What does this fold into?
Amino acid sequence: MAPTKDQIRERLAAIAAPDGRKLTESGVLSDIVASDGKVFFSLSVDAAQVKAWEAVRKQVEDAVKAMPGVTTAMVALTAERAAGKGAPPPPAAGAPHAHRAPAGPAGVPGVKSIIAVASGKGGVGKSTTSINLALALRDLGLKVGVLDADIYGPSMPKLLAIREKPQTIGGTRLKPISRYDLAVMSIGFLIEEETPMIWRGPMVMSALTQMLREVEWGNLDVIVVDMPPGTGDAQLTMAQQVPLAGAVIVSTPQDLALIDARRGVAMFKRVNVPILGVIENMSYFICPQCGARSDIFGHGGAQHEAERLKVPFLGAVPLDMTIRETSDAGLPVVATQPDGPHARIYRDIAQKVRDALAGPGAGRTAPRIVIEA
Ligand SMILES: Nc1ncnc2c1ncn2[C@@H]1O[C@H](COP(=O)(O)OP(=O)(O)OP(=O)(O)O)[C@@H](O)[C@H]1O
Ligand SMILES: [Mg+2]
It folds into this structure.
């Protein structure tokens, strides 16, 4: 029989926090998610005390794993800023954004910029775009990481045909998996494919924070974050928690997708993350037999929308069987057909992204292209 929440709490009461108090009385424990022997919860601690808590986190996780009926236990440590040290206020309207103060969350040591690839709508090609954009940035000579933040439906294991588990360094930090010279991390590497996704808000957040901060990313120019679809609270929190230098919005040309793309732009505006630009995916179709081009979704919609929203348009990627087939086979097109037409398109987009990141006040805090909040 899998233990109940109360039984887990009881077990946790026997574990001491670093200050000697019972864990259950230390105020750090999140809601406990327990379902079918799978247990997830987080410990939200003061950032200054993370080191002291790491050993406790491990002890807690081991204790829960050892309970009869528990098949999986994941305990995440999330560091919270002490009250009063929150994010600086956003710049006044009209203030030069290049001098924008650092966004709320702290950066990841050794990583120059983190960018999000997002969309309002699901299935528009975020993950496909993320991996190919990452590879194209690599082709430009950058050192690149990929963080699959789609906790509900991770894509990177499939897109890169990764089946191995990441190794740990010193028992606590994870080493990203290396593929095509990219450092890659995904929740999909840590859980079995059949594991039901019972993550809830706080769980999602702590898993993301862990993947960002407890992974040995090394020295990177940029991490490309493949975001989950949607513009709800979970996405908003993510956008706030990750120190983003900018966001790339992916949209298909249809009106409905464009409405969602607009929501995506608005969401990042709300949390003061600059929009690096919009990519139109599945923009047009080239007939594999005759080579004729057709605009089945009404090509150009995203470009017009970008103009309307006064954000840069980064490029159009066709709807093409090669892109789908290579993605499905775990052989992304930019890596496996570097001289083909698709790789060229992604590299053009990557150049624009790189230039946007390299503008005045470059780095994780202040890309050049910004929109007024
Ligand atoms: N330009 C393209 N041409 C052909 N197929 C594409 C293209 N872009 C994406 N696809 C295919 O469309 C499907 C959805 O793409 P993808 O998984 O990248 O979307 P997503 O926005 O990440 O989806 P989700 O919202 O589920 O995370 C996949 O089968 C992918 O191979
Ligand atoms: Mg995806």
